Each structure stands twice: as C-alpha cells, then as structure tokens.
Amino acid sequence: MITVLASKPHAQLEVVERDIPVAQLAGEEVIKVLACGVCHSDLHVADGDFGGPYPIVLGHEVVGEHPELGRVLLYAPWGCGRAECRQCSAGLEMICPNGREAGVVSDGGYSQYMKVPRREYLLPIGDMDPATTAPLACGGLTAFRAVKRALPHLLRPGSRAVVIGAGGLGQFAIQFLKALADVELTVVDTSAEKLTVAAELGADVTCNSNELHGKYDAVIDFVGADATLAAAAAAIDRQGIIVVVGLWGGRIPFGVGAVPSETVLTTSIWGSLEDLRELLDFARGHKLQHSIQTLPLYQAQEAHDLLRSGKIKGRAVLIAN
Ligand SMILES: [Zn+2]
Ligand SMILES: [Zn+2]
Fold it and tell me: Are the C-beta atoms of 319 and 296 separated by less than 8 Å?
C-alpha cells in the first residue's frame, strides 16, 4: 500500500510503500482509507510545532471502509484510554493530557490503510460521500463543539451572537448557529469575499471587527489573535461567553473590571466522540454547505504547498483509494 510519511520536521512528505497494517491488540481495527482531509494542523505537525513523534503518518479527517461497518467516519482525538484518566473516563478524550491523536501522535490517514485502536472510533456514515464527509471529523467537529458551548447563552429568542473568522470553521459555525438557536448572527472578517459567503450561509450582519455595535451574548473567535480577542471582550455582554478556537495565541487581560461582570471566557478544543455522533446526526438532517478540492493521496505534499500559499478554496481532501 501507499503511505505518506512526515519523516522529520520541515522535511518534504515522502510517498513510501508499506505493508498493509494488521490488527494485533484486542479491539484494534484496520480500515481502508477512502478520503482524508488536509487541515492546518497537519501543516503544524509537518513543521514540528506539536513536538512529534517522527516519522509519522499525518491526517486526522478520515473516512474509511470497514469490512463489517461499511463506510465510517473516524473519531481522531484519541485519548490515553486509561480507566484512571479523568478526561477519558468522562468522554473528553480530546483534552486527555496523554492523548494519542491520530495524525498528530499516532499514525493517521495519509495512507491507503490505517490501524484504529477501538471500533467505537468508527462511526458508520452509510452512503454519505467520503470526500465531503471527511472534513467533519476536525473542521466540522471543532466548530460544532464551540457552538454547543455557546448555546446555553443563546436561549433567549433574538439573542445576539458573533462569529469572528469566516473561513472553513466559521462557515460551519454559521450554519450550526442558525439551525440550533434563534439568534441574530453577526460575522466578522477582513475579507469581503468571505463575508459574502457568510451572508449566503445565513449571517444577518457582516462587518469588520471595529463595526460591532451594542452588546452580544456570545462571541466565537476562530482567529484568536490579540486584536480579535480585544474585539470580543469589548463586544461581549455581562454574563456572555467568549469561546476561543483560533490558534493565533492572542492574550487579553482578565479579572474583575477587565472584562464585563460574570462574562465566561473559555477555549474550545476539537470535540468528543458524543459531539461527533451528534454532528453526524445533524449532517444527515441538514444540507451542510462547504467546499472541497480533491487530490490523489500521492500529491499530499502538493496539497500542503497549496494550503500554505492560500490557494485551496475550502478543504483539500486526499483520495486514497
Ligand atoms: Zn484538524
Ligand atoms: Zn486519557
């Protein structure tokens, strides 16, 4: 089979021939990979930003074929699975301190076949399209959890919400928010083109961050830079919630008087297995709109280059078989 390896940080990805993996330990499964999305996190892993190990097979947005389950979407934020782990036993594997995430710590889906440690990580998708379903595993799931975190603050009809960043994750979030809450939704971005897409997906107001006016019940920040966090803090209402997803590493002052009274600030990380099940149910019932661009698996390096240079519209998805 063909596998794509990241042999060391900053190296070109290598296409290599390997034996098809074999399930050895109890519970292990092997899937034939059909499609694997290329996420910005894959670039971070390729650059060594997350620390290794190397060599590693990247890829955590995987749809595969299982001999008994048929087409499956892979839950990739694998935890340590130990009974004494508080996060894993609570079903919060994506924040396990000893996580074994596929494509980040364990070998992932840039391969024609892939070994999976537990059958529970394989969610049947029936006849859903592999290439368009694959990005739900990270892009979709991350946006879905962030929206779920905000929903308890958006129970009042006509609540006001802001999405900062109208890229792939933000576009998912717009669709989730409009479907799951009675909300007046403002979308902030610096790109007029992305704001047009946001309006088409259901945003009520589109603007720049300095054009926000009044107070909002929830802000979801898919950028996470100093400037966007400051805009969120200035716009949030008392007892509102700011959910930070973006990885730009911004900081704002926090404390009594520094943010409105009883405002909740939280990060939101990827998603749980239960979140992914709920998202799949949602995707079956709603026509989610997101664009993909497919490339064959052996062009994984090209997909990375295109993503780095901003030339991918929507999500690049590698077709493995
Ligand atoms: Zn990802
Ligand atoms: Zn754990």
Answer: yes
Question: Which ligand has the shortest distance to the CA of 80?
Answer: 2
Q: Is the confidence at residue 310, as pLDDT, over 90? A: no
Centre of ligand 2 from the C-alpha of residue 175, in Å: 31
What does the radius of gyration of the chain's CA atoms come to, in whole angstroms?
20
**Model pTM above 0.90:** yes
C-alpha dihedral, 136 to 138 to 139 to 141, nearest 10°: 70
Domains of the chain and CATH, by start: 2-137+271-319 (3.90.180.10), 141-267 (3.40.50.720)
Note the pLDDT tens digit of each residue in 153-194: 999 999 999 999 999 999 999 999 999 999 999 999 999 999
* Nearest ligand by distance to the CA of 88: 2
Q: What is the distance between the alpha carbons of residues 23 and 72, in angstroms, rounded to a whole number?
A: 17
